[in-house]
Amino acid sequence: MNWDSTPTDTAADDGRLVGAAADGEDQAVEAALRPKSLAEFVGQERVREQLDLVLKAARQRGATADHVLLSGAPGLGKTTLSMIIAAEMEAPIRITSGPAIQHAGDLAAILSSLQEGEVLFLDEIHRMSRPAEEMLYMAMEDFRVDVIVGKGPGATAIPLELPPFTLVGATTRAGLLPPPLRDRFGFTAHMEFYAPGELERVIHRSAELLDVTIDASGAAEIAGRSRGTPRIANRLLRRVRDYAQVKADGDVNQDIAAAALKVYEVDGRGLDRLDRAVLEALLKLFGGGPVGLSTLSVAVGEERETVEEVAEPFLVREGLLARTPRGRVATPAAWAHLGLTPPSGGGPGGTGQGDLFGT
């Protein structure tokens, strides 16, 4: 059970059953289900092994752990790992986020109140303001910040010594981090999407903690629709639990899981209403494309950012949609998934008529 508890900047993700952002219910459940040690953490084998070495070496030296940067999609376990780092180092943890630090003074106030060895978790670190980011450079490297007192020619910089601490930064967009900041992290890790087998382990453990009876076929059915994300797997498990409680005897098997997720409009590959609406518009209205993002967004009645940042990443990752210089194009897998036959002739989309919409 490894998933993040803090919201991300993904547009319009909240409210979707297969959205990876955490809502209030997710955060409450995660508090109860979150693993407390690396040994309990499911998946991310390479990251766990590397991080275990970093933490054990720091404990043997009696020193604070190096700063850690965790990157990856929402819901894969960045917040969970930050809490595990604090637990493994037997240190307190302070949690904040990049959008909450808009001024250097905000960061100075947090840093000056840290205890020795404390873990500072900074989620969505790429969204921190530039003045605060520049202050963080010195804090990470020299454990010191310069507090500016006064304004104009009379301003004075007062150096403030900080106790050694460990910064754990998390980001869903590692490419937006400036190199000077990225280079100051002693250990960086990229969180990968989970394999179905790993998600099944997550589901079984969650089901046990939630007192849900589920067999292997039910766990496999939910895992196959969870988009490689533990948070989504746990959310789907809770909805399947509700269905089993109301419509059946409370036990979850493959038939119950499939029937429940059909009610919630999550298909066998994890696509929901928005995902299918994008594919259906691309296939039925524009012959498979290419079609421009703005035109496609109007066709499905959603904002451009919603289609681009919420629906498209998963569709591209699943090989159902391709982004090209001329616009969005459906792949043969998209036609097969919706049970449609591609039109013959034309360009990449089949008919060539979508070229009119390639901007």
UniProtKB/TrEMBL annotation:
Name the SMART domains for this protein. Answer: AAA
Q: From what superkingdom does this record's organism come?
A: Bacteria
Organism (species): Streptomyces boluensis
Segments of this protein annotated with the region Disordered = 339-359
Primary subcellular site in the record, as a coarse category: cytoplasm
* E.C. number: 3.6.4.-
PANTHER family attached to this UniProt entry = HOLLIDAY JUNCTION BRANCH MIGRATION COMPLEX SUBUNIT RUVB (PTHR42848:SF1), PTHR42848
Residue numbers binding ATP: L33, R34, G75, K78, T79, T80, E141, D142, F143, R184, Y194, R231
Domain remark text: Has 3 domains, the large (RuvB-L) and small ATPase (RuvB-S) domains and the C-terminal head (RuvB-H) domain. The head domain binds DNA, while the ATPase domains jointly bind ATP, ADP or are empty depending on the state of the subunit in the translocation cycle. During a single DNA translocation step the structure of each domain remains the same, but their relative positions change.
* Protein name as it appears in the record: Holliday junction branch migration complex subunit RuvB
Q: InterPro entries of this UniProt entry?
A: AAA+_ATPase, AAA_lid_4, DNA_helicase_Holl-junc_RuvB, P-loop_NTPase, RuvB-like_N, RuvB_wg_C, WH-like_DNA-bd_sf, WH_DNA-bd_sf
Q: Record keywords: Chloroplast included?
A: no
UniProt key word Iron: no
